[in-house]
Design goal:
Strand content: 25-35%
Strand order of the largest sheet: 14-15-16-17-18-19-20-21
Helix content: 10-25%
Largest sheet: 8 strands, antiparallel, barrel
Number of helices: 11
Structural class: alpha+beta
Pfam families: Beta-lactamase
Oligomer: single chain
Protein name: Beta-lactamase family protein
Organism: Reyranella humidisoli
Distance between the termini: 77 Å
Radius of gyration: 23 Å
C-alpha cells in the first residue's frame, strides 16, 4: 500500500470521528496532526458561528483554556533563568497581599501546592462563570484564603489559583501585562502569530469561534461566561500555532532546557509520583509516554497531545462542550501509530457485566467522599462532586479515570466493599450507601467561612432542606438543595447553567453534641471550615 493510500485511509477515519459535526448547522472542531515536524493533517469540521454560517478552518481561533498553563510556566522559567524569580520561594514574597502559607512556586507549577481553586472559592459564595467579575475580584478570592487542602507538596490536586497567581507574579516582575510578556518572549519569536492572551471578555478577537453547549437532540445554545482570564487559561490560539509550539519541544529555541524543565519529575513528599509536571501532564497511550494538557471552558474544549517517542502531535480543539477532544485526540494518535511496534495491544474494554454488581452509590465518611457508579451509554461512568467521568481498564484489576486531571481508580474489595485509589498512595475502602440518613434536625442555622467569605443559611422547608447562599460578589439566587448521607455528613447540590456541582459537608460537633461548624469538601477544596454563627 502506498503512502498516499495510507494517508487517504487515515483521513477518512479521522473524518468519520467527526461526521456528526459536519452536518449543517452544527458547531464542531479542528484537528491537527504533525509527524516528524511536518503537518500531516489539518482540517476543520462544523461551524465556528452557527448564526453567521462561518465554517471552522485551520486559522480559526478558539479559547484553549488550561492549555495556557504551560505558556505561563514557560515565561516564569525564563524569569527564573535570569535570576529574577526563585522556584523555591513562596508566592507571598512577590505578592505580599497573599497569606504567608508554606507553599512554593514550584509546587504551584505542579498543582501540588494545596491552594484551593479560586473558581471554587467564588462558587461556594454563589458566584459562577456566567456572572460578571473583575480581575481584582479573582485576586481578592485568593488573598482572603488561609486554607490549604493538604500539606503542600504531599498530593496532586488541580487548582487554577496556582496559575492565576503565577501570571500575576510574572506581571509584577516584568512590569508588563502577562499577554505582552507572552507575546514578546514566546509567541513572536516562534511565529505563533494567531495566539494571544486577552483578559477582557468583550474584546474583539479576529476569527474567534463562538462557544456552544448542548447537542443536536437538545438544541445548541451559546455558552455564557463573564470571568476575565489570565495565566490559568486566558489564551486564544489556533491548531497550527499549537503545532508550532509542539515543535519547540523537539527543537527548542527560546531556551534549550525549557522542554526538559516543563517535564521534569518531582516526587511528592511521601515519595509517590506526581504525573502532573510543570503546566503539562505526563500519561501513557498503550505503552507510549504522552505529554500534554487539556482545556475546558464553557463552550470550548481542547486537547494538546504529544507522543515524543513517535515524533507525533495531535491537537483537537472544539467549540462545542459535548465534544470530547481527550478521547478523540487519543483515537487519532492510535490511528496514526497503527502498526507501530512500540504500541502495546489495547486492553479489553470495561464491560457492563463487570459494573452491574458494583453499581450504585459509594461512600467513605472519613475522607469524606461520595460517588455514583453506573453503566451509561455503553460505558462505566463515575459521577463525583457532580462531575461525570468515564473509567478505563488499567493493570492489576483497576478501573481508572481516563483523564489525568482526576486521580481516581477502583476495584472490588473484600466483603462487598470497593478499594478506591485517590492518589498519593491513598487507597481507601468505600462502602455501598444503600440508604441515606435524614438530614440532622439540628443542622438549621447560619454558617460562615472566612476563607471564601461565603454565608450559608440552612433551613427546613417541609420535608425538604434548602440553603440560601451569599458571598463577596452576590447574594440571593436559587436555593441550594441539602440531602442527608449519614448522621455526620450531608450532600449539598448547587444549581448551575453549565455544571451542577455537589459538595459534602461534615458536621463538626462540640463535646455536648452541638453542631459548631461544617467542614466542606468539593472537587478542588478539601475540608474548608464554615463556622456556625447562631
Amino acid at each position: 500500500m502506498s503512502k498516499a493510500i495510507e494517508s487517504a485511509v487515515f483521513e477518512r477515519r479521522v473524518a468519520a470521528l467527526f461526521s456528526p459535526y459536519s452536518k449543517p448547522g452544527s458547531p464542531g472542531a479542528v484537528v491537527g496532526v504533525m509527524r516528524g515536524g511536518e503537518i500531516a493533517y489539518c482540517r476543520g469540521f462544523g461551524l465556528a458561528s452557527i448564526e453567521l454560517g462561518v465554517p471552522i478552518r485551520p486559522d480559526t481561533r478558539f479559547r484553549i483554556a488550561s492549555v495556557s498553563k504551560q505558556f505561563t510556566v514557560t515565561a516564569a522559567l525564563m524569569l527564573a533563568a535570569e535570576g529574577k524569580l526563585k522556584l523555591s520561594d513562596p508566592p507571598h514574597k512577590y505578592l505580599p497581599e497573599l497569606a504567608p502559607l508554606p507553599v512554593t512556586i514550584d509546587q504551584m507549577m505542579r498543582n501540588s501546592s494545596g491552594l484551593p481553586d479560586f473558581l471554587e472559592l467564588l462558587r461556594l459564595g454563589g458566584h459562577g462563570l456566567d456572572r460578571p467579575a473583575r480581575p481584582e475580584d479573582l485576586f481578592d478570592a485568593c488573598t482572603r484564603n488561609r486554607h490549604l487542602n493538604f500539606s503542600a507538596g504531599s498530593r496532586f490536586l488541580y487548582s487554577n489559583t496556582n496559575f492565576l497567581l503565577l501570571g500575576l507574579i510574572i506581571e509584577k516582575l516584568a512590569k508588563k501585562k502577562l499577554g505582552d510578556v507572552l507575546a514578546e518572549r514566546i509567541f513572536k519569536p516562534l511565529g505563533m502569530t494567531h495566539t494571544s492572551l486577552v483578559a477582557e471578555i468583550d474584546a474583539m478577537i479576529p476569527n474567534l469561534a463562538t462557544g456552544y453547549l448542548g447537542d443536536r437532540e437538545q438544541g445548541f445554545r451559546r455558552a455564557a461566561h463573564a470571568y476575565p482570564q489570565g495565566g490559568e487559561g486566558g489564551l486564544t490560539s489556533t491548531v497550527e500555532d499549537l503545532l508550532i509550539w509542539s515543535r519547540h519541544f523537539d527543537k527548542p529555541t527560546l531556551g534549550k532546557t525549557i522542554p526538559a524543565q516543563l517535564t521534569a519529575i518531582a516526587p511528592l513528599t511521601g515519595g509517590k509520583a506526581n504525573n502532573y509536571r510543570r503546566g503539562v501532564a505526563v500519561e501513557e497511550l498503550r505503552g507510549l509516554q504522552t505529554v500534554g494538557h487539556g482545556g475546558l471552558w464553557p463552550g470550548f474544549r481542547t486537547e494538546f497531545l504529544r507522543v515524543p517517542k513517535a515524533d507525533l502531535t495531535v491537537v483537537v480543539i472544539a467549540n462545542l462542550g459535548s465534544i470530547d477532544p481527550w478521547r478523540r485526540a487519543r483515537a487519532i494518535a492510535a490511528l496514526a501509530l497503527d502498526g507501530n511496534s512500540r504500541m502495546k495491544p489495547a486492553l479489553p474494554p470495561v464491560t457492563q457485566a463487570e459494573i452491574k454488581p458494583i453499581g450504585g452509590t459509594w461512600f467513605n465518611a472519613a475522607e469524606p467522599s461520595l460517588f455514583d457508579l453506573a453503566w451509561r451509554n455503553g460505558e462505566a461512568i463515575v459521577t463525583q462532586n457532580g462531575m461525570p467521568f468515564a473509567l478505563g481498564r488499567r493493570a492489576g484489576g483497576w478501573l481508572a479515570a481516563e483523564r489525568g486531571s482526576y486521580e481516581f481508580a477502583l476495584k472490588p474489595g473484600p466483603k462487598g466493599t470497593l478499594k478506591v485509589d485517590l492518589g498519593a498512595g491513598r487507597i481507601l475502602t468505600f462502602s455501598r450507601l444503600s440508604r441515606r440518613a435524614a438530614v440532622p434536625a439540628d443542622l438549621a442555622g447560619t454558617y460562615v467561612s472566612s476563607d471564601c467569605a461565603a454565608v450559608w443559611r440552612i433551613s427546613r422547608d417541609g420535608k425538604d432542606w434548602k440553603m440560601e447562599v451569599g458571598g463577596p460578589l452576590i447574594s440571593g439566587g436559587a436555593p441550594w438543595i441539602v440531602r442527608g448521607i449519614d448522621a455526620d455528613t450531608v450532600e449539598i447540590e448547587s444549581p448551575g447553567s453549565w455544571i451542577k456541582a455537589t459538595q459534602l459537608a461534615h458536621l463538626v460537633r462540640d463535646r455536648a453534641g452541638k453542631i459548631v461548624a461544617l467542614e466542606v469538601s468539593t472537587g478542588r477544596i478539601k475540608k474548608m471550615r464554615f463556622d456556625r454563627e447562631d
